[in-house]
C-alpha cells in the first residue's frame, strides 16, 4: 500500500474531492469537518492537501482567487485500491 494511504485525513480528502468534483480547499475542509463533527487545524489540513498535490494524487488549478482540486488517475487508483482492501477485509469477517 502506498505511503500516502497511511493518513486517514489524506484518504478522506481524496474521497471528498472524488465526490464533489473540483472543490476549493475551503469547501473540502468544511465537508470533512461536517463529516468528522470536529474542527481540523488549518495547518494539518493544508499540509495534507499539499502533500497529495506534490505526490500526484490531486491536481490543483486556480479559479479566480480560489484553488480547486481534482483527483488524478493515480489518486483514483490509490483510492480504489484502498476501497478494495477495506471491502475484502470486511468480507473476510463475515
What does this protein look like?
This protein has 94 residues and is of the alpha+beta class. The protein has one domain: Winged helix-like DNA-binding domain superfamily/Winged helix DNA-binding domain (Arc Repressor Mutant, subunit A), CATH 1.10.10.10. The protein is 62% helix and 13% strand. It has four helices and two strands. The chain has a two-stranded antiparallel sheet with strand order 1-2. Helix 1 packs across helix 2 and helix 1 crosses helix 3 (42-54). It is globular and about 45 Å long. 19% of the residues are buried.
**Proportion of residues in helical segments:** 55-70%
Beta-strand residue percentage:
5-15%
Give the CATH class: Mainly Alpha
N-to-C SSE string, H for helix and E for strand: HHHEEH
| Count of discrete domains | 1
CATH topology: Arc Repressor Mutant, subunit A
Provide a count of the helices: 4
Arithmetic mean of pLDDT = 91
Largest sheet: 2 strands, antiparallel
CATH architecture: Orthogonal Bundle
How many strands?
A: 2
Cα shape: globular
CATH superfamily: Winged helix-like DNA-binding domain superfamily/Winged helix DNA-binding domain
Enumerate the strands of the largest sheet in spatial order, edge to edge or round the barrel: 1-2
N-end to C-end Cα span: 24 Å
The gyration radius over C-alpha positions equals: 14 Å
Helix- and strand-based class? Answer: alpha+beta
Low-confidence stretches: none
